[in-house]
Amino acid sequence: MRVAVVGVGGVGAYFGARLAAAGIDVVFVARGAHLDAIRARGLRVDSVLGDMLVSPAQVSDDPGAFGAVDYVLLGVKTWQVAELAPRLKPLLKPTTLIVPLQNGVETPDELGRMLGTQHAGGGLCAGFSLIEGPGHVRHLGGVTFIRFGELDGTKTPRVLALRDAFSSAGVDAAVPDDIRAALWEKLLLVVPFGSLGAVSRAPIGVLMKTRETRALVITGMREIEAVAHANGVRLTAGVVDRAVALLDAAAPEGTSSMQRDIAAGKRSELDAWTGAVERLGARHAVPTPLHSFLYTCLLPLERRARGELTFA
């Protein structure tokens, strides 16, 4: 089995390092200072579940340097997918499965349109990880897992083999019966607290322990639940209650990647998170007043990060 990790941020580094530590042949596609550090010193992942060092690491900024692989774990930001997708073609053979690990519900179909539906799977993960420095990622813990599957729900040999590889690496891995529903349930979990966190600059613990913001998180979850149903997605019963329980159990200092990017003045996944709720709701005339408000509040910061606006 050969796995390419494209995008060695917190997510890609953690799950790629776990596979590599279990003896799986893993190659990494990175860039900039991250690439240079991994080449020189290997990929270091400090984790509450056990530290790892992948050294020497097979790493390049060119996906074509490695040839075809069995799986691609796509850990880049959602806004990078369209530009990057054509560069993934050298990694693909007829049976290669691409597992996108972005938070969002639109990337699998985008990959299918650009690279062929036979390559496009669905994927999601959980766990708080962040880049400490070039070639160095810290996994803070929290509920940590990976889920993936074929978009039609078929439990094919290739998804089961990848599940078994992750399980052998000590990762909580599973193939859901309906990966699209799982993607929407993850969206329901992360987008309300991520958007509210970006606006308030508060971590999960504060958001969930403050009565007013806790109520807004739940309101946001209900909006996404309604949008999912309107888009023909069957969420499991009790999804909002389970999401609230997960946030209550999360590391209180945790923040979303979108919140961290916006706070740092970087381009974020605002359009694929908060914007997608508003956009997909409007498609079916489902009102999303909270997400519309949060998206509008954050849009100037997002446009400044893109270089479209200038203000202090």
Helix content: 40-55%
Number of helices: 12
**What integer is the average pLDDT?**
95
Widest sheet: strand ordering: 5-2-1-6-7
> Strand portion, in percent?
15-25%
Number of domains: 2
Q: Under the CATH scheme, which architecture of the largest domain would be assigned?
A: 3-Layer(aba) Sandwich
CA gyration radius, whole angstroms: 19 Å
Number of strands: 10
Describe the main β-sheet briefly. Answer: 5 strands, parallel
CATH class of the largest domain: Alpha Beta
Order of helices and strands: EHEHEEEEHEHEEHEHHHHHHH
Could you tell me the CATH topology label of the largest domain: Rossmann fold
- Tell the overall outline: globular
The span between the termini is 50 Å
CATH superfamily of the largest domain: NAD(P)-binding Rossmann-like Domain
**Structural class by helix and strand composition:** alpha/beta
Enumerate the spans where pLDDT stays under 50 for 5 or more consecutive residues. none
